[in-house]
Prior knowledge:
Blueprint: H1 2-9, E1 27-32, H2 84-87, E2 91-103, E3 106-107, H3 116-122, H4 134-139, E4 142-147, E5 165-166, H5 172-177, E6 182-184, H6 194-208, E7 211-213, E8 217-222, E9 237-244, H7 245-248, H8 251-265, E10 270-276, H9 287-299, E11 303-307, E12 315-318, E13 321-324, E14 329-332, E15 342-353, E16 356-358, E17 363-369, E18 382-383, H10 386-400, E19 405-407, E20 413-415, H11 425-428
Parallel strand pairs: 2-4, 2-14, 4-6, 6-7, 9-10, 10-11, 11-13
Antiparallel strand pairs: 1-8, 2-15, 3-5, 8-9, 12-13, 15-16, 15-17, 17-18, 19-20
Amino acid sequence: MGQRKKRFVALVCAVSVIVLSSCGDDLTQQVCIPGVEELAQPIGGYHTGPQDDQPGDNIGEIVLPGGTDGDNTALPESGQCGASDILTGERCTITISAAGDVTLGNHQEQDYSYSFRQAYDQAEDEGYFFENVRDIFEADDMTIVNLEGPLTTSEHMREGQTYCIKGDPAYAHLLTLGDIEAVSFANNHRLDYGEQGSRDTVAALEQEGIVYAYDKNVGIYEIPDSAAAHGGERNLKIGIISVNEVEWGAQAEKLIQNNIEVLREQNVDLILACCHWGIEKDNYPENYQQQLGRKCIDWGVDLVIGHHPHVLQGIEEYKGRYIIYSLANFCFGANRNPEDKDTMIFQQTFTFENGEKVEDQNARIIPCMVSSVKTRNDFRPTPATGEDKQRILQRMNEYSSAFGVAFDEDGGIIVNLLYGESDFLWRVHPYL
Length: 432
């Protein structure tokens, strides 16, 4: 294993060329699954919550050889979907960005000082929170995050929940200002303020035109000006599934399969599955995460996006498609000073020819910090530079090595360079 790791590290600086593009703004559709039988009651306890609200940043700094700051904006465009003079109406590329846990608000134990609410009240511009990543999100075709907590004025907290998170419904506008078009909402904080809190959140998202998905509710986002990919007949459609495996357990599999069928009936072109899963603060996925992630792809999902651990986990390539095990926190109001401030944005470009998706592995990560300052959380995720960027790339290389995945100095993904196939997790992973 030691020799394998040395050989793996030697490949980290290989060059990967990624071409991304942009296709426009917001058209939305929301779909509730019809006729799906009610699932069993959730299993397991509500054991999640924010990380310890303690000062300090105790992460050691690891330097990747040859690392550079690079350009953290979207990668070079190959042409817009609607530009028939460039693409001749036959080929189209779209780019999707995914980021981690977003809590637009506080939990009930937090003081006002240095809180998200105070930052909102004192900000001169509401665009403050996503100001440092907005250029990245504006340049893609769709951005999705995990909305970890309701937007509601309800005061009725869920019994038995250690941390109950909420923000004002007006905070939904912050997503719009950050150029975030979609959210996953199936997580163990959705019902912190009961069904009323969930309904208030849905109303706030709908008012902003933001696509959402949770449980039996699937979301569909249309890519504007992408009709060239279908000979001018219709725009490309992205279907979104969001499930809370933490509480539903094995029942999540049936829910995902039902949702896939519904999305197929809606003629979507891509399917994203957002899975709330894993162990908090654990940088390596559990066995069941890999099993479920692979099943999703076998069932027809194009990209699996993981949340819940609040820290980074690795990325696996399986049958030409990606499983992101955990994107960590992002704009995280529920913790004034998380110990681990490392995070990332995942971007993938999908290519369509004559209305059909072309299988490729055109993806990268953008290392980020949850805060623009290191001494506390100012709730402004910021692209990492210098030693911070190198450290995050080093961590992701470590966490993804058992899957045969590495990242070059610009975050480009290199797959299966060392071991050939990625079906070796159980043989070499030191933590499983």
